[in-house]
Amino acid sequence: MQQKSADLELVKLTKRYGDVTAVHAIDLRVAAGSYCCLLGPSGCGKTSTLRMIAGHELASDGDVLLGGRNITLLPAAERGTAMMFQSYALFPHLSVLDNVAFSLKMRGIGKAERHKRAHDLLERVAMTPYAQRKPSELSGGQQQRVALARALITEPSVLLLDEPLSALDPFLRIRMRAELKRWQHDLGFTFIHVTHSQEEAMALSDQVVVMNQGLIEQVASPHDLFNAPASEFVAKFLGGHNVIRLGDAKIALRADKVRLSRDASGDNTMAGDVLGVEYQGTYVLVTMNLPQQDDFSVMLPEADFFRAPCSPGERMFAQWNSSDVHRLAS
Amino acid sequence: MSAPATATHAATRPLHTIAAWWQAAPFALVFLLFFIVPLVLIGMVSLWDFNEYELIPAVSLRNYLSIFEGCSHLTDNGDFCVTLSTYLSTLKFCFLVWAITLVLGFAVAYFLAFHVRSSGMQTALFVLCTVPFWTSNVIRMISWVPLLGRNGLVNQTLMGIGLVNEPVEWLLFSDFSVVLAFVHLYTMFMIVPIFNSMMRIDRSLLEAATDAGASGWQTLWNVIVPLSKTGIIIGSIFVITIVMGDFVTIGVMGGQQIASVGKIIQVQTSYLQFPLAAANAVILLAVVLMIIYGLTRLVDIRKEL
Fold it and tell me: Looking at chain B, which residue has its C-alpha nearest residue A92?
């Protein structure tokens, strides 16, 4: 099956619930065939945005364009999008096969034809042996595959995923994450994935859209995002960054770019007391109390830490290179 | 280390078992006293013999045989025997009431579950549904009389607007009024279990159906109805068992002119023909159990609960 992928564009898209504005006139362009994650804390408007794209929520203002076609007001099934729901929303009374064939049945396609096409898709996601099972008899990962097959049967050009991994246990989450990425690569069409986990967004995306309070904070590739967060919010939400006030300006500094020593030397040095030391395996996380600053943390490679270990209560100097400083917009 | 552990285990297990039996005992006792014993008594009495003066303990099938006497062939008028035609009449009411309460109950439950958004409003409307139950069911039945009678409100209105010239006779003391009263009395027994099933349907399933291009009716038929099946079956069992055994409603609303199985049993007890009444009760029980068995074959209630 070769789905034709298309660019997705949001123009001044707005969602209001009464007096509350969930999404504030956002503009976004997602290139055909890319993996895009909408990332943000709960209540940031990412799910509302996804649901407006899917057609499960009516936009209060603005437009959704798919391949140049305005789909803002079209019913969900006529948009060329398909949705994979949080916890998958498989029909509990139908077999796996009938779940996948559901939308074909709704279109009045005969039993033999729809079962044949459903079987083809189940084969693609390696679920053929489970065709006659009920969803409750499947593991979380298997349910995800069935949900994917069900979404794909309408041959969408954009697949919308609403926190698809949140229902899985941590181990499976990482495995199914890899599987999602592989499918997107093989199928070659656009995935738009809503998540609150920056780790997930980093691992999967070509393009990460960080949202906060109904606005887009930053759109960037994971690499650019991590190395050049646009705002204090982005830096803090991604984690692994320290935000330091220097006079009027604020800078972001990656926690793994900081060194610790017992004596002050060089320009970029600040003194502080060690608050805690956590061993994390590949690195050691040292939290410090710097005067006039928020939490400050340092990630030291395991070997570096044990060359000169420190313990809570000790006074240490944090040092970094000027080139690792990233100035934040105020 | 392991030996004492095993010993304690072995010691506590019988205690646990005894505790469990004790916990189950009160309800088992109630069940035994008020269900099993009367049922066994009825079964026993149905085999007794009787004459005008006394009940004679015996084991005979005389009562059963007399109930089905003449049922192997049609009467001279081409009718079924009394027992069969009474059962058919009761089954007819049962089917009509079941069908109407099912459609009504499903519609009301659907409205409450899917169209009323706020749970406060849901509760308020639900309480509203139970308002008729604040009075006794006899009063609820009798209150139909001034409405449906020859000079009742309905007839006066119909004649007032010139739709009919003389009072409509079939409004009261007819099949119509019996079915109407049954529906009025028992639709709630459909609404509650169906509503309960519907509230347990994950709302994202409805969106998934919309996403797959299902229309409102398709979603209703392919998703909501199958997932409400348990509630439908439970409600059906309530309504069917009540209607099959009823004699008050059919008596009052039918003007004591319509036969029903319950009525037969009631008349026989009033003539002190207890063994005959008991035999009829056993047959009725068997018929109802068969209907329920058929219904439970459609859905595994234990699994669904």
Answer: B227
The answer, for B211 touching chain A at a CB cutoff of 8 Å, is yes
Q: What fold characterizes domain A242-328?
A: OB fold (Dihydrolipoamide Acetyltransferase, E2P) (2.40.50)
Determine the Cα–Cα distance for residues A195 and A35; give it in Å rounded to an integer. 13
pLDDT, one tens digit per residue, over B155-206 is: 888 888 888 888 888 888 888 999 999 998 899 999 999 999 999 999 999 9
- Tokens for B213? 């291009």
Grouping H, G, I as helix, E, B as strand and the rest as coil, residue A22 is strand
Residue pLDDT, tens place only, A108-157: 999 999 999 999 999 988 899 999 999 999 988 899 999 999 998 988 88
Where do you find CATH 2.40.50.100 in chain A? 242-328
All domains in chain B, ordered by first residue: 81-304 (1.10.3720.10)
Instruction: Decide if A86 touches B, using CB distance below 8 A.
Output: yes
**Chain B: nearest CA to A65, how far in angstroms?**
18
E strand residue ranges, chain B:
49-50, 55-56
DSSP, res A4: P
Q: Does A56 touch chain B (CB under 8 A)?
A: yes
Report the CATH number of the A8-227 domain: 3.40.50.300
Give the pairing type, strands A81-84 and A158-162: parallel
ipTM comes to 0.82
What is the token pair recorded at A112?
């033999």
pTM as predicted: 0.81
